[in-house]
Amino acid sequence: MSGPGSRPGRDDSPDRLYTLTGGRSRAGTDSPFDLVTLVVAESAPVPGMQSEHAAILRMTERPTAVVEIAAELRLPVGITKILLADLLATGRVSARHPRHQAAVPDLELLEQVLVGLRNL
After folding, report:
1. How many CB atoms lie under 10 A from the CB of residue 105?
2. Max CA pair span of the chain
């Protein structure tokens, strides 16, 4: 029978997760992070920094989605959001949502379609 520590390369025991987050279970109500939020490092890791924070800064040299960070760290997304909130609060990362390119309809084309429909 397999237990929580039996998965290779994964250590998500409650004690470890509690330690990583300082006992917090949520990133906060004003957290800008969801699964697709892009995170970018604003600074390099510094000596003495928590290893997960340093790993996040290294992997977000280019925009990286929260879900990708969680997968790479092999941590639950909720825990990853807490770690990201810590980095955001200290200005070490920035966060933004992917741009949604709203398609602006071509008004001339719409008028031609309307004329065509009226002619039917």
Report:
1. 9
2. 74
pLDDT tens string, the chain, 120 residues long: the values are: 444 444 444 555 666 665 676 666 666 667 778 888 899 999 999 998 988 999 999 999 999 999 999 999 998 888 899 999 999 989 999 998 877 555 666 778 888 888 888 887
Alpha-carbon span 49 to 92, nearest angstrom:
12
70, 52 Cβ separation under 8 angstroms = no
What's the pTM? 0.65
Q: Return the beta strands (E) in 17-111 as ranges.
A: 38-41, 64-65, 93-96
Q: Which residue has the tokens 């409650």?
A: 14
Q: Is 84 within 8 Å of 27 (Cβ atoms)? A: yes
State the DSSP code for 6: G
